[in-house]
Write a structure and sequence with these properties.
The chain has four helices and 27 strands. With 400 residues, the protein is mainly β. The strands form seven sheets. It has a five-stranded antiparallel sheet with strand order 20-21-22-23-27, with no helix packed on it. It has a four-stranded antiparallel sheet with strand order 1-26-25-24, with no helix packed on it.
Length: 400
Amino acid sequence: MKPLRSLAIALCAFFPASCGEPGIETERGDPDRDWQVLSAVDSIWINEGEDAYIGDPFNMVLVQGARGAGFEEIWVSDIFSKSLLHFDGDGEFVKRVGSPGPGPEEFSQPYLMFRTDDGQVAANDARQYSLKWFDAETGALNATLRYDIGMIGQSVPVTRERESEPPLYVFPLLDTETQTSLAAVDPERGTIERFGELTERHREAPARNAIWFTAFFGVGALVELESETVLTVFGGDETLLVHDLEERTSRELGAVPVRFRRGVDGDCVLRGHHEDLSDCGSPFEAYSSMWGAWALNDGRVVIAHLDTVDVGGPGRTLLQAQSFVTILDPSTDEACVDLEVPVGEEVRAIFTVQDNDLYALDRRLPGTHTESWLLRFELPARGDCPAEHRVEGWLADADP
């Protein structure tokens, strides 16, 4: 990556506490609480110029170059431009894949995006209910797979290799009709298999008239723990489920601890919009949304959270968000909880993890225009969690 350049000045201007010692006060947090703020250690300025504008990003994919050579590719799926934006490892714009429209090579609402080992870039269109595979080099459309409502997700799917056949792609799924949490997609045959349990709160949502909860707050993420074993986590619920892909079985792993972020108000999210929520405040403040999960090289799991606050006036919703990450260690039953990530206040912050580093797409308004930066944050090594963030006993079973 490029050296830090002027980012240190920008961070000090927007987040003065991130330039000082650990133990800070934030405007939206409890002033009596002190917590650790991660510091950006590197950055790349994304040069959008006149050819590409990142207006409403959903997720990003980073393609690593040769060892020690940084990134070769940076991809961003953008709902505003209805396309996949490709930048090189220095942040310079390369090309746009897809364009606005309802056609086969076009997007109405590009969401989840991922790269494949055979040189393709794929994305789902949340309005066309389709997965589309493009040649990453030329941008030509290779395949399209239609699906019905239910497939959602923020994380890259897990690839299951098969002998003499193309791979299967396993996505996180929140389908309250079939009560399933995973979708195995076979692009060669054009089929989708649903399986895996939902958490109790998501299973109860339809009967409790809380469909708004599953539909709006249900962003899901998928983490591969080991071969044939994956973990799912969904926004609006702190419960983690582990699924055996071979046996098609599911079990509860535990619940994500809460220390400094607001966390989920389970009573409010399940009461739904048909009941009086006056004691819950804005519906957006009844939950702490999960917005990504990844596995580290040492087996720990990183989960990104957004605490959303409605700062709008009467009849007007205006959301801001504060970002945190939690690192769970299934092998020790320990967790490093709620480290703040000093990025902008967007309600859909964009994160990913490579090796043991967290990367954030940070968009700022330094004057009359926005600037986009790719920031790198070093995550604490096992045993290096600050004492005020250390939690034990989050596993549902002492022997996972």
